[in-house]
Amino acid sequence: MHCIELENCRSSCEEVVLWFLREYLPEGLFFLTVEEKDLSEEGVDGWCMRETHNEFLIQIDKNIIIPSFYNRVLLHELYHMYQYYNELDTDEDETLEQEHILLNKFYRNH
User: Fold this and answer.
1) Check whether domain 2-109 has CATH 1.10.3720.10, yes or no
2) What is the pLDDT of residue 66?
3) What is the mean pLDDT of residues 20-33?
4) Among candidates 60, 51, 52, which has minimal Cα distance to 6?
5) Where are the domains of the chain?
6) Confidence check: pLDDT of 109 > 90
7) Residue 88 DSSP SS3
8) Model confidence over 37-94: pLDDT tens digits?
9) What is the DSSP letter of 8?
10) What whole-number distance in Å separates Cα of residue 100 and Cα of residue 10?
11) 110 three-class SS
């Protein structure tokens, strides 16, 4: 069972998160918080942090304007959560490759 909390997120966030979880972590037991905030000082578009074994925080830069780029960043961070949850290496090259695959799959289904 998933426990998901969305803080200050645009409406598309929930759709992307729920799709990803149904497709890739349907049996997962974890807590996920996704929030939009100003990350311009940090110089990143988003990041995923593992708080405990099954508790994750994803932050996405609220300054992202283009919806498809926002979804791409969100899927990128969700894939990092997938890697953490499944005890996989957080290989950035693999994640960059996966974000494009995930974005295409998401748009084909929506």
Assistant:
1) no
2) 96
3) 93
4) 60
5) 2-109
6) no
7) coil
8) 999 999 999 999 999 989 999 999 999 999 999 999 999 999 999 999 999 998 888 8
9) S
10) 21
11) coil
Torsion of CA 73, 78, 80, 81, to 10 degrees: 150
Q: Quote the strand ranges of the chain, DSSP E.
A: 2-7, 30-37, 46-52, 55-61
Q: What 3-state DSSP class applies to 45?
A: coil
Are 50 and 22 in contact by the 8 Å Cβ rule? The answer is: no
B/e letters for 78-100, b = 16+ CB within 10 Å, e = fewer, are bbbbbbbbeeeeeeeeebeebbe
Per-residue pLDDT, averaged over 92-104, amounts to: 92
Which residues, other chains included, contact 29 with Cβ-Cβ below 8 Å and sequence gap of 6+?
1, 2, 54
Q: Contact 30/56 with Cβ under 8 angstroms?
A: yes
Nearest alpha-carbon partner for 64 in 54, 76, 52, 56: 76
CA distance 25 to 30: 10
| Rounded CA separation 75/110 (Å) | 15
